[in-house]
Amino acid sequence: MSISEHELRRKILEALKEVRSKSPERNFTEAVELHIGFKDIDLRRPENRLRFNLLLPHYVSSKDKIGVFADDPHIPALRELAEKSEDNITIIDKVRLEELKSNLKLAKKLVRNHRIFLSSSTFMSNIGKFFGRMIKILNPRNKMPIPIPINEDPAKAIESAKRTLQIRLHKVPVINIKVGDIKMTDEELAENIVAVLEAIKNRMPKGWRNIKSIHIKTTMGPPVKISLMAKRKKKIAA
Known about the structure:
Number of helices: 9
Shape: globular
Strand order of the largest sheet: 8-1-9-10
CATH topology of the largest domain: Ribulose 1,5 Bisphosphate Carboxylase/Oxygenase
Largest sheet: 4 strands, antiparallel
Number of strands: 10
């Protein structure tokens, strides 16, 4: 089974129109989610599991929630950015990290309330010393921080993070992931979804044959199925 990128994009655009028609306007910005089911793949074998970061063509959320474990050289620029940005940027310095290490409930809440995390590379290089208990909270939730080189502009790293998805297929043959929000155009959402599906398909042992189902939905809306089966041409009567 195979499907061209053009045909896949067409099917996704059709599904997105149906998603919008079945999703009444809410008093908050709904996420657009992609649900993928897998088949004929043994996740007990490490080589069949997935864990990677994917840079999308467009942002994941118009107002994102990003946590940054920041070392001194990055903190001034991050504070200035957090004041100006519409995104929810939380800065976790060494003092805040010590508080989190001693308060497991607060640490879990922080991780739960942020979509993605970054970290000054100097924190990452001393991960055992600085993170300790945090690793056990971040890792199972697939939210390990993306390192920021010490000489890189944090604003650039934040912009990249807004377009980054952390994808993981581990114990259960399902991936449920946010790929955008309802404020985005159908074309932007379709480009993000195509990027995700192509990246996952290319990492599957049998490509599309390992993908059992694909659904798109909003946060509170019903799922809409995308079929990978190409339409058969109708026979012309003699």
